[in-house]
Design a protein that fits this description.
single chain, about 270 residues, alpha/beta, Lysozyme-like, SH3 type barrels, 2 domains, 6-stranded mixed β-sheet, 3-stranded antiparallel β-sheet, 5 helices, globular
Length: about 270
């Protein structure tokens, strides 16, 4: 596998990237982790965000024996977002539970007594989870937005009672941290983390770029293509007055499916 080409985005630019990019892998789960090390003290003017992406990749390859950096996404204390292992490639996040997952590494040590999350970082973590829920039609529930701590070392989930009563012990790391949005229990996520993601989904869904809108076909026959341009093959046609829902737009083209690459020419919708 070729090594990932790292990119660092502002939240606004990451939003555009996610919404305007088609992915082929089926996503069923968002994993939340913390790096533990590097932590907040590691980020300096000399050793900035890109440096630490490369450092983590080197560690994952040479110490863990992986083919590339493990995570798909890294969030930073500044609020910036790093795109790491391509989203269409399965991450190395929770051993035995990576199929269909996106791995988010939140840079910092969020165990009790260590890093106190900046507001910008907190906002970005909620934002990334909400954006991925929108993109992949997921919900902020314990089955779809998960913490590393909830799985044993084979990838099997612990019972809710075991996690909520702090009985995991040394069977798994505390990741994403004992003090991550309250604690690392399922009960805490349902009180402190999931409602914030749900609220952010509501806010994002109200923006023109992200709000799925109903449109009517005004051409006699409209080609549905596999990508945003005439160079992409025609998959099928739809006829005048057919109602479609637009999920995102790119360069004058509209994507009319949330799960498939179905694109039509925007000017032929009204």
């Amino acid at each position: 596998m070729p090594l990932a080409q790292f990119s660092i985005y502002s939240p606004q630019d990451f939003q555009k990237y996610i919404l305007n990019t088609s992915f082929t892998r089926q996503i069923t789960m968002i994993q939340n982790h913390h790096t533990w090390e590097p932590d907040y003290r590691s980020i300096t003017a000399a050793n900035g965000e890109m440096y630490w992406l490369e450092a983590m990749r080197s560690f994952h390859i040479h110490n863990n024996g992986w083919s590339d950096i493990g995570q798909n996404i890294t969030s930073f204390p500044s609020g910036n977002i790093g795109l790491c292992r391509p989203i269409d490639i399965t991450p190395a996040g929770i051993f035995g539970a990576n199929k269909g997952a996106i791995c988010i590494e939140n840079l910092g040590n969020f165990d009790a007594g260590h890093d106190i999350m900046t507001q910008a970082h907190k906002d970005t973590i909620v934002f990334v989870n909400a954006l991925l829920c929108i993109k992949f039609n997921l919900s902020p529930v314990k089955e779809q937005v998960v913490y590393h701590h909830w799985f044993d070392k084979t990838g099997k989930r612990f019972s809710d009672d075991k996690v909520n009563n702090n009985l995991v012990g040394d069977e798994q790391k505390t990741c994403p941290g004992i003090a991550f949005f309250g604690t690392n229990t399922i009960a805490s996520a349902e009180i402190n983390f999931f409602p914030s993601i749900k609220n952010k989904i509501g806010q994002l869904s109200g923006s023109p770029l992200q709000s799925p809108g109903l449109k009517i076909v005004k051409a006699d026959v409209l080609n549905v293509r596999s990508g945003p341009g005439t160079s992409f093959p025609v998959l099928r046609t739809i006829t005048r007055n057919t109602q479609v829902r637009v999920f995102t737009t790119l360069d004058g083209w509209s994507k009319i499916s949330n799960t498939a690459d179905d694109w039509v020419y925007s000017a032929l919708l009204t």
